Amino acid sequence: MASSSSCSSCMLHRGLFVPKEIENRNRVSMFNDKSFSVSADLAQSRILVADQKSMKWNQTQKFSLKNPIKCRALEIDSAPSFTVGKKFQLDDVIEAQQFDRDILNAIFKVAREMENIEKNSSGSQILKGYLMATLFYEPSTRTRLSFESAMKRLGGEVLTTENAREFSSAAKGETLEDTIRTVEGYSDIIVMRHFESGAARRAATSAGIPIINAGDGPGQHPTQALLDVYTIEREIGKLDGIKVGLVGDLANGRTVRSLAYLLAKYQDVKIYFVSPDIVKMKDDIKEYLTSEDVEWEESDDLMEVASKCDVVYQTRIQRERFGERIDLYEEARGKYIVDRDVLRVMQKHAVVMHPLPRLDEIAVDVDADPRAAYFRQAKNGLYIRMALLKLLLVGW
Amino acid sequence: MASSSSCSSCMLHRGLFVPKEIENRNRVSMFNDKSFSVSADLAQSRILVADQKSMKWNQTQKFSLKNPIKCRALEIDSAPSFTVGKKFQLDDVIEAQQFDRDILNAIFKVAREMENIEKNSSGSQILKGYLMATLFYEPSTRTRLSFESAMKRLGGEVLTTENAREFSSAAKGETLEDTIRTVEGYSDIIVMRHFESGAARRAATSAGIPIINAGDGPGQHPTQALLDVYTIEREIGKLDGIKVGLVGDLANGRTVRSLAYLLAKYQDVKIYFVSPDIVKMKDDIKEYLTSEDVEWEESDDLMEVASKCDVVYQTRIQRERFGERIDLYEEARGKYIVDRDVLRVMQKHAVVMHPLPRLDEIAVDVDADPRAAYFRQAKNGLYIRMALLKLLLVGW
Amino acid sequence: MASSSSCSSCMLHRGLFVPKEIENRNRVSMFNDKSFSVSADLAQSRILVADQKSMKWNQTQKFSLKNPIKCRALEIDSAPSFTVGKKFQLDDVIEAQQFDRDILNAIFKVAREMENIEKNSSGSQILKGYLMATLFYEPSTRTRLSFESAMKRLGGEVLTTENAREFSSAAKGETLEDTIRTVEGYSDIIVMRHFESGAARRAATSAGIPIINAGDGPGQHPTQALLDVYTIEREIGKLDGIKVGLVGDLANGRTVRSLAYLLAKYQDVKIYFVSPDIVKMKDDIKEYLTSEDVEWEESDDLMEVASKCDVVYQTRIQRERFGERIDLYEEARGKYIVDRDVLRVMQKHAVVMHPLPRLDEIAVDVDADPRAAYFRQAKNGLYIRMALLKLLLVGW
């Protein structure tokens, strides 16, 4: 969501200016003084507060769910309690870097509430009346189903595009910006997957509604990064002081790169890199960790690393990155396998994680061990996405 | 929707005969005298009234939304007020030609109500319990999302087929008629896009439920035509007396052809055709306009036309129509561009429209001008489709 | 649904053991004595009863629909009436052979109730809050739409995957078991179509939620078999003592094979096989019928068979099975056509059935005859699927 389509600044810094085109649509300006301005977005049933200092839009949820059928214009008068400038706000989810430790904690708290919602009732109606568009320029069934399940578990509705690249007007040469401006007319939030790095940010700049990046090429996949960190906290009980072994394809896996980035926000974290030579972790992440005082080391001894770590994070060697060098792929893929031997040296409280899909880098007989956390990890993706949808659509 | 599968007459003229097969399914005949017959469609929760004179089915909405769970058979007794022969009825939406000026006005009035519904509440439940099937034999993400959003904004549900041509039993040789008769068993209304001209009419003849044509090959795309006219009225405030410049690919664009056709229903309209020689407006439309006393002229001066018009309707040169003659395409596409120079000569109240997707026939820096109406136009498609779904499913 | 992912036994025989991993998720053990154990599945809002003797899970619906928002944990205390071991239970729908006559009757009774629900109200809310995933590894638009319509007619929601084979992580080499364990985290029931025989059973063994087989390769398509038998009962009024002619491609059609299998469960059934030599019914079914004392004969006289039968079940000659031998296909396809001549010799109460899609093996002018039951048969698929979804999700 951007406050102006011509503004290409960071999506976390918004000016006070409400462009005519957006005002025309749904918003009525309510008041505007030196410290903040308020406008009510009638269509989205939320009040937008622009704090002069932080230049951020803040949305409150005060009146959003009480009587969903009732005219909001009336309710605004009788429920004028805004949260101004104090609480952080979420306009879009574009990259792992946008989250600091406080925001992560806040999101995780909501994710925990979502676990209860999903488990204890026949479905929430928190997002009833809201419509999410899944605009996928490359297929990713797993991610798409996770988002769509999250939306529907909260009572929301979904418009699906499974293969927008091939099918849509994009094939006729339409720009992403134009597509976004059309689709935002049909929905309240867009979950986008794209084959180009930076596409999600471009979309957010054009859009008047929230954008969630569900992966943009070799770039970012922030909800995966969030669910990984959330899973570590849920499984191990803490993030400060943990030891994490990142194993497998560390060169091409955006998952492990984002995870390393987020772990750097916590105290006394130690990271081990275990990978075939051909797919070693790149220098940029290593330098970043060093600059953030995060201890890391490379190792070629999976057993030793596994015996020390709280988390063994295994990844798939991505065949698609090797092109015709099948020989190199075959050499790399068999090198570090998590099997019962690895489990044997792991600590009792430690867990094995994996972003899935897995091939044989984790042996199937590991699944039955309680420390095999990867399917719970996948399920945590649902809770994280429920939390983000709630936060973006109705606020805290 | 047809009253008989063997009847191939116009979908706006229906006989009194209710075939056994349809009666079997959901309808009970209620009474039948010289002036009209009445049957209640229990599954569709509407009463069908066949007026002897006009030979049209008319559906009333009297008892449709009050107590949706309650047995309709009972309600029929206590709410026997039918509208007979007075109000026009809508059974299917097949082609732009089926609408006269009165019907257009009536639809536009409902579309305005839909704008309010979409903007002011957390979603209507007018179509709760209704199921729309989108049967797309060729992909059109934009149109499909617009219809599905319209249905869901009104509380209805959707069954989606994004690529029926490749996937369905059509690949095994099933006729369209058989497919329709199967799908109508699963849904309450079918929105169909097809690659063959006339397919929608064939479907309507077979179907016992309403059909909306979402484009059939080079043939018709009536909801696009309706939203274009609706947009002109919304933006300019009137339709009589307007001046419209149709620009770009006038030979292949069914949009501009349908628009010219519908504009002929209004008074004192003046149409300008501005196009490269290779894609000039065809004679059939010119002759039709002349026969309807609509003034038109061809021009190769976009600036002059733009300075006189209320609406500059730009279209994309369709590369796919040029085959291997890329040279001709390249020559044609650069000829008439709407840019800031064109905006400068346009009147203050005038607007630029475009059916989208656009390539570079409208410069991106035009977007910020309030006269750039094309994204509002796309949004109007939502309101028109909401209106049509409401009218076809629950009546006026 | 399996009680353990490592247990590969028949899905109708379940042990008492509730694996930790499932307990962790949603179930709390309630009590466990010599005769049965009870655990409450909080997420699925049902109580699972494991009868020691039959080793089957039994689910009751006592507390499932009353107050869907209310916490189930509380309700369990106040509604402790279980059905133990008496009523049959349905965990998965994998193959036609799993149903005996009593179960078929019970399902058909629920299907009749579903007809009323579909016809007389604006939609049921029986499955509100439940989420069905359609995981289709090969496209089958007809079957998919039928299941999705069934779910939505009962107020449930759907996650769709139209072409899981090409799109999903399966393309990256993920096993079916892993896919199922991920998708079950996003949904309450999985409807699966697969290109490999036995895939549905493998899925059911992995899954902690119910699986419905919507066709697995040349293997089974049990819901088609159920709807066929249901249609015969609905149209003819009985199943004992009926005469059925199976016509067309009897070698490749899994439909006719399953139907023959199920008909053997009834008394005094007589089956006629009428097919081109190249696609005759295989010996395994003939031997099975003989072993079950079902009378059958082969005939090459369609007229004579049609004059004797209650049901003429026509099928399509499947071109895709003939490879390059188009000549053999052409010879076979024209041999037995159901046309008005066949209708003329058929009895007044008899019906023509066909699993659809049809090509020209039934002449189009047969459609208008009331004995043409194939579109009603397709519609019955909706009722059968509604019934199965209800039974699997909320019980009897």
Automatic annotation (TrEMBL), chains A, B, C:
Keyword Kinase attached: no
Keywords, alphabetical: Pyrimidine biosynthesis, Transferase
Enzyme class, UniProt record, top EC level: transferase
InterPro entries given in the database record: Asp/Orn_carbamoyltranf_P-bd, Asp/Orn_carbamoylTrfase, Asp/Orn_carbamoylTrfase_sf, Asp_carbamoyltransf, Asp_carbamoyltransf_Asp/Orn-bd
Pathway note: Pyrimidine metabolism; UMP biosynthesis via de novo pathway; (S)-dihydroorotate from bicarbonate: step 2/3
UniProt catalytic activity: carbamoyl phosphate + L-aspartate = N-carbamoyl-L-aspartate + phosphate + H(+)
Enzyme Commission identifier(s): 2.1.3.2
Domain Aspartate/ornithine carbamoyltransferase Asp/Orn-binding intervals: 240-391
Annotated ranges, domain Aspartate/ornithine carbamoyltransferase carbamoyl-P binding: 92-233
Quaternary structure (record): Homotrimer.
Main function: Catalyzes the condensation of carbamoyl phosphate and aspartate to form carbamoyl aspartate and inorganic phosphate, the committed step in the de novo pyrimidine nucleotide biosynthesis pathway.
HAMAP family: Asp_carb_tr
UniProt family annotation: Belongs to the aspartate/ornithine carbamoyltransferase superfamily. ATCase family.
NCBIfam families membership: asp_carb_tr (TIGR00670), PRK00856.1 (NF002032)
Full protein name: aspartate carbamoyltransferase
Organism field: Xanthoceras sorbifolium
Top-level taxonomy: Eukaryota, Viridiplantae, Streptophyta, Embryophyta, Tracheophyta
